[in-house]
């Protein structure tokens, strides 16, 4: 009981409760006004119709728009208020302009080599259009001279991060969606503290909602007192606002701009199976050593400078590393890229779709959530019906029940099309990876769901022809061996369950 009371009276819990109370009071006042006044009833009816028309006219995903329209028209008061409060982002234009200004300033520092792009397009013709698209539409260059190490489990990824952090000479840049106090965070923080004493610059950035109940409210102050620079993306406030929708879901660790990590792993003990949640936690990640690491570092610096007023050009120039000629022939190319919810380019979705369409033999996918929009679902089904071996591995044990049920609602039509769907039997699958023909892959933070593809800041790396692709394939094949294949027998549901799944599909884009 004492433990429960302590949890309840934590400042962050009280802030969350305050927000819920605001919702209840606000909803009660509005509801009373509507039921007792023809004026307010008419006002909200017209407002809901106006919002529905606005959704129709606004550029965006049709499924996303349909979900909002249904909500607004079925629940004129609450649906309309929910849309106005949580979908209309009041600061995205200003924030996007700042991001664009930063990215424009970074262009001369991206080590963009036209020769490398052309050589890559010639060496990997099936993926030449994707290389070109990311390079020209997103200014995300293709890099050579980059070693890629693949880590099939969070424990190995964590040990590699600790090893490289200990080698830092100039700086450590750290950006993760979730940071939780425990073995993992404490060991990394200890190294950061030691490195600061050695004169190494350390910058830490994390998402406030992602780490909301996992870090103390004054963590930023504590880090700064230790000499660690810290920025918290989109801090939570106990006031009803539209500013909380977009989150920083990225995961980047850069050491001196020469070595960088990314993948699905957050900084919490369940990711390295020191804490059991939802069975065995399966995750993965990669390390880039060489020019490609600078590409990930620039993605970190974009958001770092966007959430504060800095002299970003001078800062980035000082941080840019120099690279010696590699002592050995390094196979393959890498193309790190970021995705932002504030721009008009859905780089995450576009990369996934273009890779699926490029497949000639097989497509293997790791994803914790499978809430597909029409483009991705069509691409996967078209690939399978064209003779491509499509396999998708999702979790057997879920972390979010409604999301898991919605994920399963897609299984029938995928299996009908010839796609093999597996659920990771030992526990929770959190990796985000897609492998194409053993010749290309994308590894990073992007889930196959609407929130990841359209509402979060994300990052990933496209790998072309790297030796690590063999390791990714072996890991996926080994994982399939211990996973359960979903057949039509397992997917035979009762009528009530099918109805519930259909309803959830209608609102899937809002999850």
UniProtKB/TrEMBL annotation:
It is a multi-pass membrane protein. It comes from the Bacteria. This is Cardiolipin synthase. The chain crosses the membrane at residues 12-31, 37-56, 68-86. NCBIfam families: bac_cardiolipin. Its EC number is 2.7.8.-. It is found in: Cell membrane. Keywords: Cell membrane, Lipid biosynthesis, Lipid metabolism, Membrane, Phospholipid biosynthesis, Phospholipid metabolism, Repeat, Transferase, Transmembrane, Transmembrane helix. Its main location: membrane. It comes from Alkalibacterium iburiense. Residues 244-271, 425-452 form the PLD phosphodiesterase domain.
């Amino acid at each position: 009981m004492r433990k429960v009371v302590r949890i309840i009276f934590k400042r962050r819990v009280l802030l969350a409760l305050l927000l819920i109370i605001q919702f209840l009071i606000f909803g009660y006042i509005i509801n009373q006004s509507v039921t007792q006044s023809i004026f307010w009833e008419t006002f909200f009816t017209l407002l809901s119709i106006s919002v529905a028309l606005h959704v129709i006219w606004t550029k965006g995903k049709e499924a996303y728009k349909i979900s909002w329209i249904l909500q607004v028209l079925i629940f004129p008061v609450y649906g309309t208020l929910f849309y106005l409060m949580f979908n209309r982002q009041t600061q995205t234009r200003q924030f996007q302009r700042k991001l664009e200004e930063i990215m424009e300033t970074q262009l001369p520092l991206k080590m963009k080599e036209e020769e490398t792009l052309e050589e890559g397009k010639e060496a990997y013709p099936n993926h030449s259009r994707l290389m070109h698209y990311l390079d020209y539409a997103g200014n995300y260059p293709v890099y050579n001279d980059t070693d890629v190490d693949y880590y099939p489990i969070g424990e190995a990824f964590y040990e590699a991060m600790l090893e490289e952090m200990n080698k830092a000479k100039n700086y450590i840049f750290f950006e993760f969606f979730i940071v939780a106090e425990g073995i993992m965070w404490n060991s990394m923080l200890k190294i950061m503290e030691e490195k600061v004493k050695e004169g190494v610059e350390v910058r830490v950035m994390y998402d406030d909602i992602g780490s909301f109940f996992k870090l103390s409210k004054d963590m930023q102050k504590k880090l700064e007192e230790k000499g660690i620079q810290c920025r918290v993306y989109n801090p939570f406030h106990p006031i009803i606002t539209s500013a909380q929708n977009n989150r920083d879901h990225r995961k980047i660790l850069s050491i001196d701009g020469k070595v960088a990590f990314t993948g699905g792993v957050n900084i919490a003990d369940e990711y390295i199976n020191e804490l059991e949640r939802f069975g065995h936690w399966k995750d993965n990640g990669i390390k880039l050593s060489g020019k490609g690491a600078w590409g990930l570092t620039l993605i970190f610096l974009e958001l770092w400078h966007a959430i504060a007023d800095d002299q970003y050009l001078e800062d980035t120039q000082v941080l840019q590393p120099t690279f010696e000629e590699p002592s050995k022939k390094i196979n393959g190319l890498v193309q790190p890229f970021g995705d932002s919810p504030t721009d008009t380019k859905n780089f995450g979705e576009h990369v996934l779709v273009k890779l699926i369409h490029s497949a000639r033999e097989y497509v293997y996918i790791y994803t914790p959530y499978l809430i597909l929009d029409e483009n991705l679902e069509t691409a996967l089904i078209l690939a399978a019906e064209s003779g491509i071996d499509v396999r998708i591995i999702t979790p057997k044990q879920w972390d979010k029940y409604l999301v898991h049920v919605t994920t399963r609602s897609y299984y029938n039509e995928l299996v009908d099309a010839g796609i093999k769907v597996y659920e990771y039997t030992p526990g929770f699958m959190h990796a985000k990876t897609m492998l194409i023909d053993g010749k290309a892959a994308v590894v990073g933070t992007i889930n196959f769901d609407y929130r990841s593809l359209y509402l979060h800041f994300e990052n990933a790396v496209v790998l072309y022809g790297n030796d690590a692709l063999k390791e990714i394939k072996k890991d996926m094949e080994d994982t399939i061996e211990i996973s359960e294949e979903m057949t039509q027998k397992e997917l035979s549901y009762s009528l009530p369950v099918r109805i519930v799944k259909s309803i959830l599909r209608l609102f899937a884009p809002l999850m």
